[in-house]
Amino acid sequence: MSLKRFLTSSAFFKNLVVALVIVIVFLFAIVKFLDFSTNHGEEINVPDITKMKLEVAEEKLDEEGLEVFLLDTVDFKPEFPPYTIVEQDPRPGSKVKDGRKIYVKLNAGGFSTVTLPDLINKTFRQAANTIRTLGLQEGKLKYVPNIAKDVVLEIHQNGKKLKAGDKILKNSTIDFVLGDGKELFSDENDSIPSQEQDSIE
Fold first, then answer.
1. Higher-confidence residue: 48 or 33?
2. Alpha-carbon dihedral angle through residues 177, 182, 184, 185, given to the nearest 10 degrees
3. Cis check: omega of the bond before 90, within 30 degrees of 0
4. pLDDT band (50, 70, 90) for residue 30
5. Predicted local confidence at residue 187, as pLDDT
6. How do strand 67-74 and strand 44-45 relate by DSSP bridges?
7. pTM of the prediction?
8. What digits encode the pLDDT tens for the residues 138-178?
9. C-alpha dist (Å) from residue 180 to 1, 72, 99, 129
10. Which of helix, strand or coil describes residue 174?
11. Which of 77, 84, 102, 163 is the most exposed place for a label (fewest CB within 10 A)?
């Protein structure tokens, strides 16, 4: 049988149809296998692991088929227990695939210390901006007689006088002693004119 006759014969078309069916079935089987191996359509709700110790979070995520990856330790946040997770990505409730890594940040064990700069003779506004930048908080203000109004004369913490260079914990409360802008004359100064008058006499 010549090639031309074979290509136009019914046997050729039957074989062609069978071959196409086999190819289609094979491709369908591959797609199904890939769907199964990649958990296509199956998603996991990310649990809330904030305020958990890292070891506890690892166990919980492992049960869900997820992994935890520590990114960094952040400055201490008092609303979270020490050494617990303060941030996670993806966030709780997000839908992810099996095996996805959950990136977390850990709370520090406590407040770090800062060095107190020289704030004496600074205006209260300047001093307040400086301590906020350092992570400190403004406390009580006490005014005493002094010609320099709203200028820092002393700094205290829990009744203890502080000086430049002292180490204090972040989030500490700092109290200020400020000038009230008034100048009081002492009894000595008040008596000078009378003394001068006596000497003249």
1. 48
2. 140
3. yes
4. confident
5. 46
6. unpaired
7. 0.57
8. 999 999 999 999 999 999 999 999 999 999 999 999 999 99
9. 119, 47, 65, 20
10. strand
11. 163
Bridge-based pairing of strands 95-96 and 44-45 is antiparallel
Phi-psi region of 87 (alpha: psi -120 to 50; beta: other; left: phi over 0): beta
**Which pLDDT belongs to residue 200?**
34
| The amino acid at 183 | E
Whole-number mean pLDDT of the chain? 85
Go through 122-138 and write b for each residue having 16 or more CB atoms within 10 A of its CB, e for each that does not: bebeebbeebeeeebee
Domains, the chain, ordered by start:
44-107 (3.30.10.20), 113-179 (3.30.10.20)
Identity (one letter) of the amino acid at 121?
N
The DSSP secondary structure of 38-78, one letter per residue, reads TTTT--EEPP--TTSBHHHHHHHHHHHT-EEEEEEEESP-T
**What backbone torsions phi and psi does residue 192 show, to the nearest 5 degrees?**
-60, -45
- In the prediction, which pLDDT does 196 show? 39
Question: Comparing C-alpha atoms, which of 63, 66, 86 is closest to residue 75?
Answer: 86
Look at residue 162 in the predicted model and tell me its pLDDT: 96
